[in-house]
Amino acid sequence: MDVSHLLEDLNDAQREAVTAEDGHVLVLAGAGSGKTRVLVHRIAWLIQVHHVSPMGLLAVTFTNKAAGEMRARVGKLLGLRPDGLWIGTFHGICHRILRMHAADVGLPETFQILDSEDQYRLIRRVIRDMELDEGEYPARQQQGFINHHKDEGRRPEHIEPFDNPHALTQVAIYRNYQDYCERSGLVDFAELLLRTLELLRDNPARQAQYRDRFGHILIDEFQDTNKLQYALVRIIAGDRARLFVVGDDDQSIYGWRGARVENVSDFARDFDPTVIRLEQNYRSTATILEAANRVIANNEERMGKNLWTEGEQGEPIGIFSAFSAEEEAEFVVARIRDWLEQGGAASEAAVLYRSNAQSRLFEHQLLAEGIPYRVYGGQRFFERAEIKDAMGYLRLVHNRDDDPAFERVVNVPARGIGERTVAAIREHARSAGTSLFAAATAMRDSGAFAARAGNAVAQFLEIINDLDRRTRDASLGELMSAVVETADLARWYRQREAPDRAESREENLTELIRAAETFDQPLEDEQSGLSPLASFLAQAALEAGEHQGEKWQDCVQLMTLHSAKGLEFPLVFLSGMEEGLFPHQKSTEEPGRLSEERRLCYVGMTRAMQRLYLTYAESRMLHGQTSTTYPSRFLDELPEELTEQVRPRAARYAGTSFGGGGMSQPGPEHDFNLGSTVSHERFGIGTVVNVEGSGPNARVQINFETAGQKWLVLSYANLERLD
DNA sequence: AGGTCCGCTATTTTT
DNA sequence: TAGCGGACCT
């Protein structure tokens, strides 16, 4: 078989990684060095050259998106869908294992995955049931406590006994929460991994089964793995599997949520792998890479890596100092406008920032200029309140014992089941040792409710039972549609929320029905005997999904530095380069956290392909208060010869101290009026529909015959008047 | 039971 | 400045 296509486009280091014989491999893959490529080709190489069965391969990624991409690329390279190949996130893979061996780990077949919100609510419930002071034990904090310990593989009994009563109570909350989950068949995200770890550790048959199966384990983004994930890798691998680990210690930016960069060096120590560095970069100009290298060089304890390129030097990195955050946004948007006028696409431009709150000013400015944009992050589809409400009904239809679902929807829409009534149901459930639904049913049957509450509860129970009865043989789409209609959520939102808000919720519910109708059950789920409904519920929890509207329009991309990881854009702005904001105040005290901020800066810079700007403001409103800010220390770490002050400080002071030069004088009036017909080199012929400003800032909006409506700055656009 | 108002807090996010 | 949660009022 001809396998040259697996190697021909690879550089030496990439090829070495793809073809490595024997032993383990650690690929230190710099930004833009083609690591996904290496992983994909490695998988194809193993299958086609070493004739490894796809069944014997396990590939682990960090996000579902990455998993999907890798699956698609492997399929494309092999020219077929590799059946039996496991590609997924740690959570997805563990979920699959637990579904197959639910009985082995003491879980019911119908176990339900708790997403973070479900978990939060349940923990709050537990704290209230324990009659603790919620000020002293905030549910958020307890959630952090529990997840932190689980991520380190610790059960309540593994936590060192403290003489500190506060810590003891925290452990008690953890234990009670866990007991609740056990009784109700609920599994949170960390539990998926921990439970799987325990299964493979304590059950010799299962351990042997998976160790025999997976001869090769490939892991992406290893610098983002936590302690539990590393332990899991070691358990599955045993001493037979060959590990192929890809990571970049310089791009570790999730330490704050338990990721251990040290896993990379630990792996090098524990498994003695062949270490291969991918340092040739195919993304950025030499200028950008040199600057990024210089910044990251200020970190200690690196494994060491220097990105280089065969490409051109490129333009200097623009540094802009704005008076205010507003002016910063104006500058950025003006540069984006230039980009567009020079023929660039909006989607090629990305504005990156440290915290989400910063997006507002950019949005405002882009909106004012009529440039389309898209803000990343924010609420994901399956996390929206209306979706979770509808899914709550669905979950109860699937499994009456799903208490979090019961709590969520028992009085949504309001049907007169108040806190007192629910408390009575909880109490009954606790003493009888049943679920809330069962307790409510028993109380209805024994007439334990007052008349009004009783009717309301009976009505609710009937809605669920009736939905189940009516839809036994229905498709998932029909069931979903019946749920949305019967629960009548749309009316509820319309009645108590702003019309546009309600409308958007309604649209989302319609979208949810469509998602159910078009749901394509994964083959493996079907094989492990899951119903489509169970699959759908699991997927909703496991992949909350982008599902955001206006998918692939040509939009300027606004996102945090964190969400930019893995992406690339020709034109990039790193905004808010200010002490206290970036590096963030909370990260400046400890050196370890500062290093992570610096890595974040490195990640941000290396997103840029052609043009990079770093901008900051000298004053900014934060938490409703305007304060003076100072340039980020990271700016000082850039080599001066690679940067260019876009508007040097001196010029600004000159402008004011000399009483303003000609700059602020109104320029000569232009002769473009509303209705003028004009011609543009690239956009063709159009009509002026709007005129704004004067002098060098004058802008006109033109309705082009073919290119649509655009705002153009006259001093750049080079318009010709035709009439 | 349910709606309104006030006060507190305030990175980063995937599963 | 804005969003969320709890206390308070109807």
Automatic annotation (TrEMBL):
<dbReference type="InterPro" id="IPR013986">
    <property type="entry name" value="DExx_box_DNA_helicase_dom_sf"/>
</dbReference>
<feature type="domain" description="UvrD-like helicase C-terminal">
    <location>
        <begin position="286"/>
        <end position="566"/>
    </location>
</feature>
<keyword id="KW-0067">ATP-binding</keyword>
<dbReference type="GO" id="GO:0033202">
    <property type="term" value="C:DNA helicase complex"/>
</dbReference>
<dbReference type="InterPro" id="IPR000212">
    <property type="entry name" value="DNA_helicase_UvrD/REP"/>
</dbReference>
<dbReference type="Pfam" id="PF00580">
    <property type="entry name" value="UvrD-helicase"/>
</dbReference>
<keyword id="KW-0234">DNA repair</keyword>
<dbReference type="GO" id="GO:0000725">
    <property type="term" value="P:recombinational repair"/>
</dbReference>
<keyword id="KW-0378">Hydrolase</keyword>
<dbReference type="GO" id="GO:0016887">
    <property type="term" value="F:ATP hydrolysis activity"/>
</dbReference>
<dbReference type="InterPro" id="IPR027417">
    <property type="entry name" value="P-loop_NTPase"/>
</dbReference>
<dbReference type="Pfam" id="PF13361">
    <property type="entry name" value="UvrD_C"/>
</dbReference>
<keyword id="KW-0238">DNA-binding</keyword>
<keyword id="KW-0547">Nucleotide-binding</keyword>
<keyword id="KW-0413">Isomerase</keyword>
<dbReference type="GO" id="GO:0043138">
    <property type="term" value="F:3'-5' DNA helicase activity"/>
</dbReference>
<dbReference type="GO" id="GO:0005829">
    <property type="term" value="C:cytosol"/>
</dbReference>
<dbReference type="InterPro" id="IPR014017">
    <property type="entry name" value="DNA_helicase_UvrD-like_C"/>
</dbReference>
<comment type="similarity">
    <text>Belongs to the helicase family. UvrD subfamily.</text>
</comment>
<dbReference type="GO" id="GO:0005524">
    <property type="term" value="F:ATP binding"/>
</dbReference>
<feature type="domain" description="UvrD-like helicase ATP-binding">
    <location>
        <begin position="8"/>
        <end position="285"/>
    </location>
</feature>
<dbReference type="InterPro" id="IPR014016">
    <property type="entry name" value="UvrD-like_ATP-bd"/>
</dbReference>
<keyword id="KW-0227">DNA damage</keyword>
<feature type="binding site">
    <location>
        <begin position="29"/>
        <end position="36"/>
    </location>
    <ligand>
        <name>ATP</name>
    </ligand>
</feature>
<dbReference type="Pfam" id="PF21196">
    <property type="entry name" value="PcrA_UvrD_tudor"/>
</dbReference>
<keyword id="KW-0347">Helicase</keyword>
<dbReference type="GO" id="GO:0003677">
    <property type="term" value="F:DNA binding"/>
</dbReference>
<protein>
    <recommendedName>
        <fullName>DNA 3'-5' helicase</fullName>
        <ecNumber>5.6.2.4</ecNumber>
    </recommendedName>
</protein>
